[in-house]
């Protein structure tokens, strides 16, 4: 895997090294974990902003979306029902 160097303040490097050492991982692994977490937070923040925009800009569309969700909930299969319907998978 190719690697690169980044410049950070010594204090930041020391903080990262301390956290990585406490977790028993390398600083590279720590940074990878942090980057993944930040990426996920950004994704879900954008999803939430989209929901908020739909709620405020298109209340009818939001109501239709919620109704569709309720429809999906009503067809969800209860795991106990599924085991009765497909006994061949109950091993």
Number of strands: 0
So what's the overall shape?
A: flat
Alpha carbon gap, first and last residue: 43 Å
Element string (H = helix, E = strand): HHHH
Main sheet? none
Count of discrete structural domains: 1
If helices are DSSP runs of H or I spanning 4 or more residues, what is the number of helices? 4
- Which spans of ≥5 residues are poorly predicted at pLDDT below 50? none
Beta-strand fraction estimate? under 5%
How much is the radius of gyration in Å? 23 Å
Structural class: mainly alpha
Helix fraction, binned, reads: over 70%
Arithmetic mean pLDDT: 90
Write up this protein.
- There is one protein chain.
- The chain is mainly alpha-helical.
- The chain has one domain (10-75).
- It contains 4 helices and no strands.
- It has helices at 10-23, 27-57, 59-75, 79-85.
- α1 (10-23) crosses α2.
- The radius of gyration is 23 Å and the shape is flat.
Q: Could you give a short description of this structure?
A:
With 91 residues, the protein is mostly helical. The chain has four helices and no strands. Helix 2 (27-57) packs across helix 3.
Keywords, separated by commas or semicolons:
flat; mainly alpha; 91 residues; 0% strand
Topology record:
Layout (H helix, E strand, L loop, with lengths): L9 H14 L3 H31 L1 H17 L3 H7 L6
Helix pairs in contact: 1-2, 2-3
């Amino acid at each position: 895997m190719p690697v690169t160097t980044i410049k950070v303040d010594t204090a930041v490097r020391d903080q990262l090294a301390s956290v990585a050492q406490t977790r028993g991982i390398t600083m590279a692994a720590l940074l990878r974990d942090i980057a993944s977490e930040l990426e996920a937070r950004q994704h879900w923040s954008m999803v939430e902003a989209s929901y908020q925009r739909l709620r405020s800009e298109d209340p009818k569309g939001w109501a239709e979306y919620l109704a569709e969700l309720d429809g999906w909930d009503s067809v969800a299969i209860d795991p106990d029902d599924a085991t009765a319907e497909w006994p061949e998978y109950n091993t």
